[in-house]
UniProtKB/TrEMBL annotation:
Stored Pfam families: 4HBT_2 (PF13279)
Name of the protein described by the UniProt record: 4-hydroxybenzoyl-CoA thioesterase
Keywords, sorted A to Z: Hydrolase
Native species: Marinomonas alcarazii
Gene Ontology MF, one: fatty acyl-CoA hydrolase activity
Length: 138
């Protein structure tokens, strides 16, 4: 399935007084990595919103395991890949590496969503061209 990789440098503001990344910041990294995964496929969030009239892909479940801390100044690699593709939902796995070691593994389940006429959110089938790219070996 399609995958992407990006480098992140840990900033001072990401860290707690113990000089390690405050754990909620990792979820921000992984959310940005999901966006980068779609960008790498050629589908920006602007395109998804403006052209496809979708809201995007809200999170319905996330889980993480922490193996090694990261500190201010560390350059980490986040590898992201689709793990499953349903009709309207999909899974992503993010693995964050620090100095070659697996530091964190995170899984996400997201849904393709659009607004209904009354303004509420509703899951919708993932468009065929996006599904095809998700399933490719990018």
């Amino acid at each position: 399935m399609f995958h992407n990789e990006r480098q992140v440098q840990i900033e001072w503001g990401d860290c707690d007084p113990a000089d390690i990344v405050f754990y909620p910041r990792y979820f921000a990294y992984f959310d940005a990595s999901t966006g980068a995964l779609f960008e790498a496929m050629g589908f920006s969030l602007r395109y998804i919103r403006d052209e496809l009239k979708a809201v995007g892909f809200p999170m319905v479940d996330t889980r993480s395991q922490f193996f090694k801390p990261s500190k201010y100044g560390d350059k980490v690699i986040i590898k992201s890949e689709f793990t499953e593709i349903g009709r309207a939902s999909f899974g992503i796995r993010h693995r964050l590496f620090n100095e070659g070691d697996l530091a964190i593994e995170c899984t996400e389940k997201r849904v393709w969503a659009c607004h209904t006429l009354d303004g509420s959110l509703k899951a919708k089938a993932i468009p065929d061209d996006i599904r095809a790219k998700m399933l490719s070996h990018g």
